[in-house]
């Protein structure tokens, strides 16, 4: 559903992506894992055609209207209520407004439908951003650090939603710098360090591959073995 082949990206003199290659199958939850500045958001921006690559090729098996995007900057209207925010989006994309309430229900925000965004907790706001991303039932969902800054309970809520979306047919591409999250949530991950993929595969497979270096390593220690630096 998603592929990148030898992608290179530069910002003036700085090369921020070097030879990035991976693919994501239908109904997979794929996690791009790397510390801040590794190039995760740049990859999402290239895949969603918001940025142009300087080399290599990439593609997704969905039209722009069939993709959902949740970025760090949520772009919600803070004085409008939850349901009003979704209605604005529904009107732009010609989606029936009843979908707004359905989406709020699916993220557990039905009771807060009339609350203005500036009265929401961070967790609720993230769930609203997710509701907006799934309003049009996208085939592919791009989530840039969907649980950053959330407490464990709120993060678990988002994890459950992501699993449900996959089970109903979506392919999910997410970024995170949280190893636990990647292991719990993702079928496959790619470890990104300074714009290069240093390892990829199923989390358990990756750990197994490096078990000669350390007994029963976790992803965190594999990352340290490969890069010499810690994730956060
Ligand atoms: N518009 C931009 N102009 C110049 N440099 C940028 C721009 N966007 C990102 N960068 C740089 O590219 C690198 C990767 O950034 P980013 O993709 O945001 O990383 P991540 O999302 O993994 O934290 C960083 O060094 C960042 O400073
Ligand atoms: Mg980022």
Keywords:
9 strands; 232 residues; binds magnesium ion; six-stranded mixed sheet; alpha/beta; three-stranded antiparallel sheet; 8 helices; globular; binds adenosine-5'-diphosphate; single chain
Residues in helices, as a percent range: 25-40%
Structure classification: alpha/beta
Q: Provide a count of the helices.
A: 8
* Small-molecule components bound: adenosine-5'-diphosphate, magnesium ion
Low-confidence stretches: none
Distance between the termini: 30 Å
Rounded to an integer in angstroms, the radius of gyration calculated over CA atoms is 18 Å
Number of DSSP-assigned strands: 9
What proportion of the residues form beta strands (DSSP E)?
25-35%
Shape, per Cα inertia axes: globular
Strand arrangement within the widest β-sheet reads 5-6-7-3-8-9
Q: Sheet with the most strands?
A: 6 strands, mixed
Instruction: Give average pLDDT, whole number.
Output: 93
Helix/strand order, N-terminal first: EEEHEEHHHEHEHEEHH
Task: Write a structural description.
With 232 residues, the protein is α/β, with parallel strands linked by helices. 34% of the residues lie in helices and 25% in strands. It contains eight helices and nine strands. It has helices spanning 40-47, 82-92, 98-106, 122-134, 152-167, 179-185, 203-209, 219-227, and strands at 2-11, 14-24, 29-33, 55-60, 67-70, 140-144, 171-176, 188-193, 196-201. The protein has a six-stranded mixed β-sheet, sandwiched between helices. The chain has a three-stranded antiparallel β-sheet with strand order 2-1-4, with helices on one face. A hairpin with a 2-residue loop joins strand 1 (2-11) and strand 2. Helix 2 packs across helix 3 and helix 3 (98-106) crosses helix 4. The longest helix has 16 residues, at 152-167. The site of adenosine-5'-diphosphate has 10 residues, from helix 1.
């Amino acid at each position: 559903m998603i592929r990148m082949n030898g992608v290179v990206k530069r910002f003036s003199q700085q090369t921020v992506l070097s030879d990035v290659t991976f693919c994501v199958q239908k109904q997979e939850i794929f996690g791009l894992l790397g510390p801040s500045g590794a190039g995760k958001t740049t990859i999402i921006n290239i895949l969603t055609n918001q940025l142009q690559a300087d080399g290599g090729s990439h593609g997704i098996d969905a039209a722009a209207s069939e993709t959902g995007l949740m970025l760090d900057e949520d772009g919600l209207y803070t004085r409008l209520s939850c349901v009003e925010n979704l209605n604005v989006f529904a009107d732009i994309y010609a989606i029936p407004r009843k979908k707004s309430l359905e989406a709020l229900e699916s993220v557990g925000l039905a009771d807060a439908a009339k609350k203005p965004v500036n009265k929401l907790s961070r967790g609720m706001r993230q769930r609203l951003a997710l509701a907006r991303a799934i309003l049009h039932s996208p085939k592919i969902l791009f989530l840039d650090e969907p649980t950053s800054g959330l407490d464990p309970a709120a993060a678990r809520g988002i994890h459950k939603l992501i699993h449900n979306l996959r089970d109903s047919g979506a392919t999910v591409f997410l970024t995170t710098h949280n190893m636990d999250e990647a292991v719990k949530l993702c079928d496959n991950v790619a470890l990104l360090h300074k714009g290069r993929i240093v390892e990829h595969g199923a989390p358990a497979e990756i750990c197994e591959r490096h078990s000669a270096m350390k007994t029963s390593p976790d992803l965190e220690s594999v990352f340290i073995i490969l890069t010499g630096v810690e994730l956060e």
